[in-house]
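Comment thread on ticket #2218

A.B. wrote:
> Attaching the input chain for the structure job we discussed in standup.
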Amino acid sequence: MAIKLFIVSLFSFLSMTLNEKVKIINTSDQSFESNQLYLYLDNDLKIVGIGNLSGYTIKSSAHSHIDIFDSIITVIPDKVGLDSISVFKNKKLISTNIFTVRECDFHPMGYLSFVSDSLITVNQILSNPFLVISNPKCSYKFRFVVTNFRLNIIKKNGEDIPPVSTISKI
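C.D. wrote:
> Ran it. Output below, let me know if you need it in another format.
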């Protein structure tokens, strides 16, 4: 355990001292500062400080699958734990960031009108008729697109309000 902590500290130090202008962030995570990768999912990484990635080599210490597209790197980890992503130019190390690879429970939920934790009125729904999909147990940005949905509103007494056929169509 002490050796693992030492290695993590050493890589953290190296990433700060090698090139402070280059930073690797996971744009597939809702919290860009979390340094997390998600198991078996496409994690889109952006290297801040480098425009086009031609001439650069990207390596994973955990041998995660890596695809490079212009300025975006897609990493697909296949095991939980630590993974350091390193950027090289002409075989010279430019930057290393350590990520924690974790599982992401797949429990997406739909929320009306961007409200997830309170009651909303019919007028609020009609004024902002969108269904937003998120996963409360994971900060991974799932790529769901809701093309349409139907909403039936029922009063407290059980009486139906006439349905609005299609609330939103994208």
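A.B. wrote:
> Thanks. Noting for the ticket: Confidence is low (pLDDT under 50) at residues 12-18, 165-170.
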